[in-house]
Amino acid sequence: MKSMTLTPSGTRQLLEELGHLPNKRLGQNFLIDGNIVRKSVELAKVTKEDIIVEIGPGLGTLTTSLLATGATVYAIEMDKALFQHLMTEVFPMADERLHLIEGDALDHPLANFSPSADQPFKIVANLPYAISTPWIEKILTVNPPEKMVLMLQTETAQRYVSTEGSKQFGSISIFLQSVYDTNLGHKVASSCFYPKPDVGSSLLCLERKKDIFLFSKTAKTLIRNLFQHRRKQLGARLKTFPEESGTKWLNDLEENGFSAQNRAEDIPISLWQKLNGYL
């Protein structure tokens, strides 16, 4: 199958033919730069043996490039008109390698792909920016993909890769970096999309660590709560912890040069992982 990259005028024309206006609420900014599409596929090192999950395929630009490698693609599209377009124009040409569903990616974060234990797969997606963080958190479960290449709002991507001591460091930084090595490698100009988004975009490459660390639901809830009150010192917030857990973790902090006077953003990921063990 040949890849398909649409020009700005070609994208406008196709949308007009479909009678479709880009939906800002759904984050519909269509990628129209073939170089960025190729860069995404190259960063993911897609081969014909790969299983790829794509979120929000839209008009099919990235989808057809993924299929052109020989890979199998599982994709989910929320917009009914775009889903019908993909079923009519892309699905019949995919040699049964495209598994496409209509729905919300927050309900089906892997587009109905059900990996068996330790089954390798990758995610390559131009993510709708509004769902990026809640969707990422759903991905960080028992069997996260071996690699992800994601188009994200630059501000969001910077949060994902930030480290302790930064104002951008937060709970999602901790959860994501406990599973993936991160590489914020490529900024993407607004002119690469139609319509042009109001925010900057970046390609983020995530490579699963050899030894991953997954937080419990209880730990995630407590850590999120601490960062929601990030201006407060940890001592004030530790009162909400189970007493024994809070005491043990505070001892760990003090052994590593921190104290109850520190704020959540000061604490390195390794110590957040220790907290998980006490819960």
What does this structure look like?
With 279 residues, the protein is α/β, with parallel strands linked by helices. It has two domains: 8-208, Rossmann fold, CATH 3.40.50.150; 217-277, Helicase, Ruva Protein, domain 3. The protein is built from eleven helices and nine strands. It has helices at residues 8-17, 34-43, 61-68, 80-89, 132-139, 154-161, 171-177, 217-228, 234-238, 243-255, 269-277, and strands at 30-31, 51-55, 72-77, 98-102, 122-126, 147-153, 180-188, 193-194, 201-208. A seven-stranded mixed beta sheet has the order 4-3-2-5-6-9-7. Strand 3 (72-77), helix 4 and strand 4 (98-102) form a beta-alpha-beta unit. Helix 2 crosses helix 3 (61-68). The longest helix is centred in the C-terminal third of the chain and has 13 residues, at 243-255. The mean pLDDT is 92.
> In CATH terms, what is the fold-level topology of the largest domain?
Rossmann fold
- Regions with pLDDT < 50 over 5+ consecutive residues? none
Q: How would you write the strand order of the largest sheet?
A: 4-3-2-5-6-9-7
Radius of gyration, in Å, reads 21 Å
Task: State the CATH superfamily name of the largest domain.
Answer: Vaccinia Virus protein VP39
Globular, elongated, flat, extended or rod-shaped: what is the shape? Answer: elongated
Structural category is alpha/beta
